[in-house]
Amino acid sequence: METKHKRSSFSGRLGYVMAVAGSAVGLGNIWRFPYLAAKYGGGTFLFTYFILAITFGFALLISETALGRKTKKSPIAAYKQLGAKKLQFGGWLNAIVPMLIVPYYCVVGGWVCKYLFEFITNNSASLVSDTYFTGFSSSTLQPVIWLLVFAGMVFGVVMLGVEKGIEKCSKVLMPALVAMALFIALYALFTPGAIEGVKYYLIPDFSRFSIMTVVAAMGQMFYSLSIGMGILFTYGSYMKREIDMEQSITQVEIMDTLIAFLAGLMIIPAVFAFSGGNPDTLNAGPSLMFITMPKVFASMSFGNIIGLVFFLLVLFAALTSAISLMECCVSIIQDRYDFSRKKCCVLIFGGIALLGIPCSLGFGVLDFITPLGLSILDFFDFMTNSIMMPISAACTCLLIIKVTGFKAVTDEVEYSSKFKRKKAYLFCMKYVVVPGLLIILISSVLSTMGIISI
């Protein structure tokens, strides 16, 4: 039994980097990043995203990881240990977010499992129909079964623990994910007509650059890097103190950005080749993955094989993210109640079913429930991503600025190595991060309300 007296840890830097990168690399890298890059000037967006990732994103990654390693606690306990009486709300937000995200994330993970199954059984031709996805997602039984299948896979890995489960799984899935992304990207590049998509993706188009390019890149970077959802606190608490934190975080950023970049190379040229160079066919979200991409694969030579590899890649990305969300929940419950890992996992699996099933049925028999005019799943997504995560990240910044001081973070980083980007970190924390989080919060809410388009 794991207790609060004996905390789990990653075996070394590689295990930590692969696990955190696995958390960061999720569905957003695949179904949203390519769309935003194409919409906001290709190379211009890529450059903007990269600059924000190594400044704004780095500051938040280092902050949460350092506080996690310093306290050896998950968010609620970490905030309490650091003396954040007036900001304890932030610790609770960091804890609640993964508990609300993992159920609906497992719904989407179940959809991925279903599509992968259809490719494995050579039934991918049926996926090409415009009505297939809507018919499947709005049915009652099948999506729930696949939700539980996906959640069961996540449960199995997390039950094995940090080193034997999460670390070993991440060390296998992440290299495989990169290899598959490279394979599909290279195949897509040699598809007739794909070169126009490559140009559209990579060549900067400054006529499409605007303040919204920065806002879109900032939002995508924030949601991609697992910030404000307790994961970095939790995984930071599993990091051994002799591990070079700055170098580890840099490697996570590189891997996350690489996968997002490769996703663009996989999807944009392939969609361009399929549509005859029409950028309007490139959309974002579930419609890209579950409606457009099956049609693209159906038009390719060896499309069934490419589609199978693609959905296996997507499954790996979804799994590594869901594993980190569930592990964060386990850590929070263990820190607070000292339950065994097995008991925590069973409780969380029950919670996934309790909240995930209504999210799934919200597209069918429960579609009359529309909080704020949204489906149940989209409502949870809006509350966590658009509101709670930016606020929880802002609370962590205020915790550092008002309570612990920057020295608490810089000393923790410098315990194992020289903090090379210390000046850049301090500048970002003092002048960039909080205004940036405010922009993300406001733009996300306005986008959901339909006032602006991102």
From TrEMBL:
Transferase among keywords: no
Annotated localization: Membrane
Transmembrane segments: 14-33, 45-68, 89-112, 143-160, 172-190, 210-236, 257-276, 296-323, 344-366, 386-410, 431-452
Keyword field: Membrane, Symport, Transmembrane, Transmembrane helix, Transport
Gene Ontology, cellular component aspect: membrane
Membrane topology value: Multi-pass membrane protein
An annotated Gene Ontology molecular function: symporter activity
Signal peptide residues on this chain, from the entry's feature table: none
InterPro entries linked to this entry: Na/ntran_symport (IPR000175), SNS_sf (IPR037272), YocR/YhdH-like (IPR047218)
Similarity-based family: Belongs to the sodium:neurotransmitter symporter (SNF) (TC 2.A.22) family.
Protein name according to UniProt: Transporter
Annotated organism of origin: Thomasclavelia ramosa
